[in-house]
Structure formats: C-alpha cells, structure tokens
C-alpha cells in the first residue's frame, strides 16, 4: 500500500530518488580520478598529433623559420659585369658592383619575420586549445548519448513486456480494450524515441570521427568527480591576458608594428657602388661608379600608410579578442556554477535502482492497485527523469570544458602539469 502514499505525496519527490549515469560532482569538489583524465589525455593527444589543421599550422611555423633564416642573410648580392667590343678599336671591360644596405633594411626585415614566427608558434598553441576543447566536448556528447540510448532501449524493452502482459490481461478480461491500446501506443512511441536517440548517437560518433579521424571505444569513461565550485582566487584579467588566443592577437599587433618599420625602410633607396677596369687598344681603363634611384615620381609612402592602417586594425582586433575572452570566461564561470548546483541537488536525493522502481510499479499494476494509465505515466516519467539526469551531467561536463577553454587552463588540467583547478 505504499503506492498511494507516493502517488499523493508528489510524484516528483519520488522520482528524484533515481540515479542518473555515473557518480559525479560532490559538495566538497574532489578532483577527478587520474586514470580517467590520463585516458582522456591520451585520446586527445593522439587525435591532435594527426589533426590536419594542427599539422598545417606546424608547417606554417616551419615556413616562418625558413623565412627567418633567409631574413638573416644579406639582402643584396654583388653583380659582375663583362663587356667586349670589337670594331676598329677593341675594348674589354670587367666590372663589379654592390648595392649597400644603407638603412639596415636586413635587420628591420629580420625583426618583422621573427615577429611573424612568434605569431605562427602562438597560433599552434591556440589551435591546440580549440581542438582539445572540441574533442573533449565531442567525447562527452558520445558518452551522454550512449547512456541515453541505453535508457531508451530499456524503455522499449519494459514497454514491450508490458504490452505483452496487457494483451494477456485483456484476453482474461482484467483490463478493457482502451487500456490495451494505450499500452500498444506507448510501445510504439518508445520505439520511435529509441530510433531517434540511436540516430543521434550515430551522428555524434560521426562528428567525432570527422574531428579526430578515429573511432572512440564504447568503454570511454569521463571523470566521475568535478569541482563543485571554481576557485574565486583566480584573477580573471590575468587568465584572459595569458590566454593563447589573446596572446596570438597581441603578437599579431606587434608583428604589424614591426612590419611598418620594415616597409618604411624598404621604400628608401639604397646606393650602388661599382668598380670597372678594362683595356681599350693600348690604354688601360679604370672607373668608379655610383648609382642611386631618384624617388621623385613615387616615394612609396602609400605602402607605409597601408601597413599602418593594418596595424591599427590588428590593435582593434586584439582589444575585441580580449573583450570576447573576458566575457566568455565570466559566462563559463556562471554557467558552470549554475549547472554544478543543479547537479549537486540531483545527486543529493540519493540513488535507487531503475529495475527496482519499474518492478515495484509493475507489481502494483498487477495487483490492481494502479491503473494502466498511472503505470504508464510513472514509467515514462521515471525514465524521462533519468534521461534528464544524464543530460544534466552532460551539460556539467560541457560547461566544465568551456571553463577550461575560456581560462586557457585546459592543457594544464588534462595533462596534469600543475596543480588542480
């Protein structure tokens, strides 16, 4: 006779005693298990090593290093000139000339290319962070949808058995036709829901393969304990300033400034000095030459103006990047706090076996203490509540990864290179 008490005291209070997925965040905020984090780190690092975008970014670093090597060499090579003329008078000359880097253009170019190399290296770090976050969220999506699919499969099995029992009881005259049809409709709905969840699982696995180039095993385990709250001692401004994406934006600004100096030096005309020696008939020839372009028609100032505008654009983009990351960091903190509190509340209500709950409902229905409508309603709500719990923990994982990404601490946490958050 426990059913009427549960039924009239409030269905939701009874359903909150159900479990959802695996144990998770606790009120003390214990750190995740090392073995689970190490497993995730191995998966992510393997995927990053073969990621085409990251390989392309590393190739860009190699190209920048090659350009830096070239920029360290002299800009101008000497020129050798030979001339022979045979008419009534035979003339032979041999000359050599050298354009002098009068304004130290080579150093200005080397500094600009070095700044570009710093940008390329920082972009690899930033891209690693982006791809790591995408991979971890994709892994969380697979784990979530696997559990939801499992629960949907259980729903189908439970309602299939219930439909068979309903047919037997209808044949015995225990329940009317309308309740039998209700059982059949519930089974049909469960089959459709299972097909939908199975399709979604296939999709998230496909998305993960596109991202990583590998198939994730079914035994993947997410950390079962995440911090209940984020440390309030972390300086948000410091985290944002040190974020790889902000570092890239700042380095791009510095590279733009270096580029201004290089272009300004490049537009200036360098002198060329030469020495020519030869012989004309019986007379020796010796000449010194000096040439320099006259920049009277085009002083190339427009090129400097263009790169100055580009530098200003890079500065504004860097400010916007900082603002965006600062907003993302605060938003991630707030969303994690909200979801973590909801998850802690869910877990604090305890856990009860799904099978025990379903068996109890079936026993009450078989004993005639519960109508078919009430039975189906509570079974559906029981399973829906469990699925909601699975989705909640999936949201907890997603917001945790968002926080690690926005704070730029994902690699530190994933690879255990420093203290826990």
Q: Could you characterize what this model shows?
A:
The protein is of the alpha+beta class and 421 residues long. A hairpin with a 2-residue loop joins strand 3 and strand 4 (283-291). It contains twelve helices and four strands; from the N terminus they run H-H-H-H-E-E-H-H-H-H-E-E-H-H-H-H. The chain has one domain: Up-down Bundle (Outer membrane efflux proteins (OEP)). Helices cover 67% and strands 9% of the residues. Helix 3 crosses helix 5 (105-171) and helix 9 (301-348) runs antiparallel to helix 11. The model is unreliable at 1-32 and 417-421 (pLDDT under 50). It has helices at residues 2-9, 11-15, 34-49, 52-71, 105-171, 177-212, 236-241, 244-266, 301-348, 354-366, 372-407, 410-415; strands at residues 79-86, 90-99, 272-280, 283-291. Strands 1-2-3-4 form a four-stranded antiparallel beta sheet, with no helix packed on it.
- CATH topology, by name, is Outer membrane efflux proteins (OEP)
Number of domains: 1
The count of strands amounts to: 4
How are the strands ordered across the major sheet?
A: 1-2-3-4
- Computed CA radius of gyration, to the nearest angstrom: 36 Å
CATH architecture: Up-down Bundle
Unreliable runs = 1-32, 417-421
What percent of residues adopt helix (DSSP H or I)?
A: 55-70%
Order of helices and strands: HHHHEEHHHHEEHHHH
Biggest beta sheet summary: 4 strands, antiparallel
For CATH, the homologous superfamily is named as Outer membrane efflux proteins (OEP)
């Amino acid at each position: 006779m426990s059913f009427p008490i549960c039924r009239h005291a409030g269905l939701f209070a009874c359903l909150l005693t159900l479990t959802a997925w695996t144990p998770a965040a606790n009120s003390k905020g214990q750190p995740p298990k090392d073995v689970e984090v190490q497993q995730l780190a191995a998966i992510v690092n393997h995927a990053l090593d073969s990621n085409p975008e990251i390989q392309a970014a590393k190739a860009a670093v190699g190209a920048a290093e090659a350009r830096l090597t070239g920029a360290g060499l002299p800009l101008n090579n000497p020129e050798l000139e030979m001339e022979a003329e045979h008419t009534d008078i035979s003339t032979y000359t041999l000359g050599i000339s050298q354009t002098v880097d009068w304004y130290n253009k080579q150093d200005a170019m080397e500094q600009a290319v070095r700044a570009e190399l710093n940008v390329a290296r920082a972009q690899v770090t930033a891209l690693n962070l982006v791809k790591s976050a995408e991979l971890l969220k994709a892994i969380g999506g697979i784990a979530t949808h696997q559990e939801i699919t499992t629960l949907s499969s259980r729903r189908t099995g439970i309602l299939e058995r219930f439909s068979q029992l309903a047919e037997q009881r209808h044949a015995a005259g225990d329940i009317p036709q309308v309740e039998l049809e209700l059982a059949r409709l519930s089974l049909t709905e469960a089959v459709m829901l299972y097909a939908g969840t199975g399709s979604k699982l296939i999709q998230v696995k496909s998305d993960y393969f596109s991202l990583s180039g590998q198939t994730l095993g079914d035994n993947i385990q997410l950390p079962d304990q995440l911090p209940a709250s984020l440390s309030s001692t972390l300086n948000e401004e410091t985290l944002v300033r040190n974020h790889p994406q902000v570092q890239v934006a700042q380095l791009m600004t510095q590279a733009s400034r270096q580029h201004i100096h290089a272009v300004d030096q490049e537009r200036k005309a360098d002198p060329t000095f030469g020495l020519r020696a030869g012989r004309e008939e019986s007379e020796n020839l010796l000449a010194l030459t000096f040439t320099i372009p006259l920049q009277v028609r085009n002083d190339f100032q427009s090129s400097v103006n263009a790169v100055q505008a580009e530098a200003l654009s890079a500065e504004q983009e860097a400010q916007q990047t900082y603002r965006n990351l600062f907003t993302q960091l605060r938003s991630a903190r707030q969303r994690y706090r909200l979801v973590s509190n909801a998850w802690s509340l869910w877990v604090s209500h305890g856990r009860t076996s799904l099978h025990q709950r379903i068996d109890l409902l079936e026993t009450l229905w078989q004993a005639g203490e519960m109508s078919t409508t009430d039975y189906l309603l509570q079974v559906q709500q029981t399973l829906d509540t469990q699925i909601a719990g699975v989705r909640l923990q999936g949201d907890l994982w997603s917001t945790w990864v968002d926080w690690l990404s926005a704070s730029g601490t994902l690699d530190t946490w994933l690879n255990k290179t420093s203290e826990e958050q």
